[in-house]
Every structure is written in C-alpha cells, then in structure tokens.
Amino acid sequence: MPRRRPEGTRAPNGASTIYLGADGSWHGRVTVGVKDNGKPDRRHVRGKTETEAIAKVRKLERERDNGTVRKPGRPWTVARWLEHWVENIAAPSVSENTIDGYRVAVRVHLVPGLGAHRLERLEPEHVESLMARMQTSGSAPATAHQALRTLRTALGEAVRRGHVGRNVASLAKPPRLTEAEVEPYSVAEVQQLLMEAAKRRNSARWVLALALGLRQGEALGLRWADVDLDAGVIRVRRGRLRPKYRHGCATPCGRKAGYCRDRVQIRKDTKDTKSRAGTRSIGLPDELIEILRRHKDRQDKERAEAGNLWQDGGWLFASETGRLLNPNTDYHEWKALIAVAGLRDARLHDARHTAATVLLLLGVPDRTVMGIMGWSTDMRRRYQHLTDPVLKDAAGRLNRLLWEGPTSEETAQ
Question: What GO biological process terms are annotated to this protein in UniProt (predicted)?
Fold first, then answer.
C-alpha cells in the first residue's frame, strides 16, 4: 500500500518522497539542487519494491550531500566525453606534442576499449581490464601507462565539472612498468662515431648530441643567434616540432597528407622549450668551438652555391638550401651513421644517455650536469649506466688502493 501523509500536512519543500505508482512500481523523487533555469532539479528513481526504492533515494541523497550528483542532461558516454575533452578542453591549452599523444590514446585505445560505457558507471575494474587487454594484444606497458594517464587527466576534468563523482582512473592499478636499461657507447665508440660523422654534412650536429646531450628537437631548433662562439656559449631556447600537414590538392590525390604534392603545413616549425630547466646556456669546449667555426664556413659556402635557392632561416643545421631539417630525415641520418661506423644499433636519444654518463664519470657535479642536460628534477640515477670496462677499471683502482697500494702514477695524481 502506498504511504499516506496525515491529512492536513504536507512535505517540506525539497523533501524526498516515496510512493507506489499506478504501474505497480515504487517511485522516489529527490531534489538535488537547482537547474540552470532556476527551477528545482528533482530526480526520479524507481524500484520493484519499497525497500529497493528507499535504498535508491538514500543513495541519491548521499550523492547530493557529497556534491557528486551527475549534472542534468543527456548522459555522457566515455567516448563522447573523451572526444569532447580532447578537442574542446585539452587542445587549446596544451602543447602540440601533448595533444598529439592525447589524441592517439583516445582514438586508438580508450574509445575502442571503454567508449560504450556510461561515464558515471565506469569502474576501476573496467580500466584495469583495458590495460590488460592492451598488453595481451602487444602494446608495451609504457603505452598502457600513457593511455591511463590520458584517461586520468580527462576524468579529472569530468570530476571538476560535476559530470562524475570520482576519478576511477586514479583508483585503477597501473600495469607494472620497468625501466629499460640503456648501455651508453664507450669512449672508443664515441670517437669512432665522431670520426665517421666528420665525413658527412652537418657533422657538428652529432658532436652536440654526443658531447652535450642535446635532445633532437633542441639541436635542430638551434639558430646561429643562439651561439656565441667568441664567448663559447650556446643557448637552448626552443625545440623543433615534427611537421604536420593537410591536403592542398584541389581534387583528392589518394595519398596521405604528408605525401600530397600540394601539402600545406599546419604546424609551426618550433616551440619554446617546455620548462625553465630546458631553457639553458651551455659552455662549449674549445674543440667544439672550432668544429662549429668550420661548420659555419661550410654552410657559408653552401649558401653562396645555392644562390637564390637559399632560404635563410638562420638555422644552425640546415639543408643544402637553408631549410630547417626534418626530424625524420635526421633520424635516418643517425641510423646510417652508426651503421657506417660499425656500431651496435641504438636510438637517437641514447646519444643523450652517453653524454650524461660521460659527464658523471668525469666527476662533474650533479647540479652542473643537471644544468647541461636540462633536467628539471634529479635524474642522475637513470643516467648512471656505466659500461663494463669502466666498472672493471674502478674495481681495479679500489683493489690497488686497499690491498696492493697505489701505483707511482696514482700517487703523483
């Protein structure tokens, strides 16, 4: 039987009500706030029994009191929210590289894996299941981590806007992530690389990578205005961005935008360094100063030979016609260089590991190394990849010091 209020009384304004409807179900009405038009936002729940309806009313009241009630309107699915967030909220406020990473995570992993869920019904277990499926299908743990970080950021914004009451991505257990141990090139291998690099165009580019640990984008984004050869200082201020294009053809050419003959670049060439630590001045060794002077002489000759074809952007490392180098071209040049040098394969970024390790082995203070490398935090541990010969030499020195006594050479030092 439906509950009846004593005659002559009425429920206080905003109070919840529970009643038996003509359809045989129990209904509850809960006022959770005020709509945008100023009218009360009164929500409806339904249950087969009075007990079930009461439980749903109490749950809605708790959400109201905790400020976690979903906003009125069409319910968000995970797919709709992620697509809205990445293009309308994230894109205007983050860097080009960051939004590219967000878009890949949303389009390739999150929407296909979680998109059909209602946003407010997404659970940590759903997220953990997706992480497991990604790794089972061959994705690296780091890729799963990137997807999880993207989802956590997107859901954090949904929480701030009141669309959901909690960030389930923050509750989900991330996959285990192990740091890959990177073995830097030895001093002899670095010397071999530099010998081969000296035979190629823009050889100074590889000296900067191996001696100073400049990132690819930092090296390619350098202008001559950033280099003071007389003072022996180079200033890192910006990074080269990967080009992005759209079609410029009048009729569809059938190619990807990057291969369209009339392609139009839609991304700027460079951007300022992303952190205060990234913007830095680095002192140049005397030998590197001479290498850069010779590099400038060669570039001046190329400018004269190119004549009107030369596009002067003031780039430290440029093509034969003065244009800014493409990161993809630079990557393949690195691979060709280590192949010709007869060295084991390594990522371009591994040259940075080599430079950091050499600085640490030379006893350069940590704070100085952090300044040269542009580290925003103490990353010394990640770059202490000492090669076996160095470890063996250190063990030999320790052995002579403690048990055999120092050599005459070491005593003189």
Answer: DNA integration; DNA recombination
